[in-house]
Fold this protein.
Amino acid sequence: MIKNFFPNKILSLNITAVNSLILLLVIVIIIGLIYSLLLSPPDYIQGDSVRIMYVHVPSSFMALGCFGFIGLASICNLIFKIRFMSLIAKSLAPIGFIFSLISIVTGSLWGKPTWGVWWVWDARLTSMVILLFFYIAYILTWKMVNNFSKANSITSIIGIVGLLNIPVIKYSVDWWNTLHQPSSITLTSAPTIHYSMLVPLMIMFFGMLIYTLIIFLMRYKTEVIKFKIEKKKN
Amino acid sequence: MLTKKVKSRIFFLSVLVILAALVIFVILRSLEENVVYFFSPTEIYNKSNITFDKKIRIGGLVKKNSVSKNNTSVNFIITDLKKEISVSYNGIVPNLFSEGKGVVAEGKLKDKKYFIADKILAKHDENYMPPEVTKALEKSNN
């Protein structure tokens, strides 16, 4: 499995593979959107604004997940000096950045009709903004620092420090009183979302996962090619 | 596979991460009062250093049958099922404000039992279900 992410393997990623993934993505997203926006019922309190959840929750998860991988890749990179790990992390960063932005914007749009305010500085929302800043710092460092090995070590440290923020985001709703509600889907107990809403949520989840995979594979291939060109130049 | 160099890197990195985690933990602990978005009535009851002239937030459930509205003012009781605080508020409450549901009020304490709010937020819980299910649940409860 991991061998498929070796730099030479990714170069054999061809347009047919990407296109078939895109076809799958379109099908899943269309089903997911029809299900979540039209077929699923409104919530008993929130009414139709519950539909924002079908975008908000998977986006937040992807934002956290991408940074989780960036953090782990940074650790492998710093300890074992595996070069392609930093390229993997570098390719994941813009995806996670966009998803955390989507998460914050959709959350804000949901907050106004539900809570009565666009924004509050509670632990969950604040730690999510901190994640966004970590993404910005990570991406900017790759862009501004021209020396590869220097940029590599700085971004790895940003990735590792940022990784500590991930459990804080996840458990902020359990550790402190927050305006944000606690998780509805946990490993330990039954989900508190009715199945008629859980199914479309899972479909959207799957769709966003495929999207993340497609963008990641394409970016990763590009990064590997760029890296090889740079190496040839020197 | 684990050369001496790799081992020392693992050591330094884990020391660094543990230190960073400790620092974050200590900071969050000392800022506890600021990290929590609101206090529950029980926390207010147990608090020794209450400031009555500073704005705070309290939160809990709106007690059933406690809401009374006249003109623009709203009076209700916030409960955490152990302790209660009476709240009075002048203004429009959010649409999702209702009895038995979560609420966060921002304002000042008059005393440990009475709170003057100048902002009311509705707190949503983690339960999502269609209206028909709620009706069915209510029926089976009665």
Notes: Chain A is about 75% helix and 0% strand. Residues 91 and 230 of chain A are 17 Å apart (CA to CA). Chain A has a mean pLDDT of 91. The two ends of chain A are 32 Å apart (CA to CA).
